[in-house]
Structures are given as structure tokens and as C-alpha cells.
Specification:
6-stranded mixed beta sheet, 7 helices, 8 strands, two-stranded antiparallel ribbon, 207 residues
């Protein structure tokens, strides 16, 4: 939801809570990494294994629980002001934008404008929180589609790695790989990271 003037506009998924503390890499990595990663709690769960899996790529990262895309782009701008741009930026965000999916086109455009010489890769999202009532689950799915449509409409300027489609193509994966309809469990982290690895190999292959 968001406030427009004195009106509260709701998209049916509720309201995003406060952002948690940032988890970031060794500061020395920002000047040497060939790929930067920004994201939310899903990214936090996946980063440790992703760093190992994507070697020899060198990653720098900054993530936080409850972080939406606007905040991810804010952090991107902050680090670009202090460090040279990497060759690739990977955004693992969008799940928290189900609460207001209308922000996505502007934030995608903003990220692209900050990265005139870099490749921007974005993993799409899958959210249908199992703890919620049916009406909210429906809203989650609708807003997930809204977020993902904005990402896919931004192609080819943005390189999109699909996460929603592989999960939906075999519905049992939603319960096998997601602990709550959003966050990957241990099996899900491995599956998510394999999809990221394969997507990067296809979209931004190593020389």
C-alpha cells in the first residue's frame, strides 16, 4: 500500500514493515568485484552459497531483510558514488514490492540510468504467502505478476532471470523449495542459486 495525498491506496497484500539492518561484504571488495548484488531477505539467505557457486566471478553485496526495490536502487547509487561501476549488477529484489508494485518501472529506469556501461541483471519474483488468508494470497499472486511484468517489459535493456516460471511449471516445487511461499528453504537456496548461475552463464557469460 502507499499514501497518495490523504488517501491510502492498497494493493491487497498489506503494508511492508521496516527494513532490517544491512548485511554487506568486506568493504575492499567493492573496488575489485566484477559483479555487485543488491537484495532482500531472499538474497541474504542465498548469498553465502552464491559467492562460492559463482566463482571465479568476484562478488560484492549489500542486502537487508524487508528491503524493497527503491531502497536497493538507493544503495546502488550510494556505492556508485564511492566506487567504480562493476561490469555486472545483479538485483535480487522485487518480492517486497508486492505491497506497491507501481514503483517498479521508475526504479528499473533509475537503475538503468545509473549504469550506462554495466549489464543490469534482475531475477524476477514469486510471492504467495502461505500464512495469509485466501484474498491476500490472490493479491500476492496478482502483485507478483505486476512486478514481473515490469521487469520483463524492460527487456532487453534489463537481462531477466526467471524464478517464477520454473517454480510454477511444477507446482510441487512451491512447497518443496519455499518455506512460506516466499523464502527458499535449504533445498530452495540450492535451486535458486543454480537458476542464477545458469542465467548468468546464458546472459553474461564469462570471457
Amino acid at each position: 500500500s502507499r499514501t497518495v495525498g490523504v488517501l491510502m491506496v492498497s494493493y491487497g497484500s498489506g503494508t511492508l514493515g521496516p527494513e532490517g539492518a544491512a548485511t554487506t561484504c568486506d568493504p575492499a571488495l567493492w573496488d575489485v568485484a566484477d559483479m555487485w548484488v543488491f537484495g532482500d531477505s531472499i538474497a541474504q539467505r542465498c548469498m553465502a552459497d552464491l559467492v562460492t557457486l559463482l566463482a571465479p566471478r568476484v562478488l560484492a553485496w549489500d542486502t537487508a531483510n524487508g528491503r524493497a526495490t527503491t531502497a536497493c536502487v538507493d544503495r546502488l547509487a550510494l556505492f556508485l558514488a564511492e566506487h567504480p561501476a562493476p561490469s555486472v549488477v545483479l538485483m535480487l529484489s522485487g518480492a517486497n514490492d508486492i505491497f506497491d508494485p507501481t514503483v517498479m518501472p521508475a526504479q528499473i529506469s533509475r537503475a538503468l540510468s545509473l549504469l550506462p556501461e554495466s549489464v543490469l541483471v534482475w531475477r524476477d519474483v514469486q510471492v504467495c504467502r502461505t500464512s495469509q488468508v485466501e484474498a491476500v494470497k490472490v493479491a500476492d499472486q496478482r502483485n507478483t505478476g505486476w512486478v514481473n511484468l515490469a521487469l520483463h517489459d524492460a527487456q532487453p535493456a534489463v537481462k531477466v532471470i526467471e524464478w517464477a516460471r520454473p517454480l510454477a511449471s511444477k507446482p510441487s516445487r512451491l512447497t518443496a523449495y519455499l518455506s512460506d511461499g516466499v523464502h527458499p528453504n535449504t533445498l530452495g537456496v540450492a535451486y535458486h542459486n543454480a537458476i542464477i548461475q545458469q542465467g548468468l552463464e546464458r546472459l553474461v557469460p564469462l570471457p
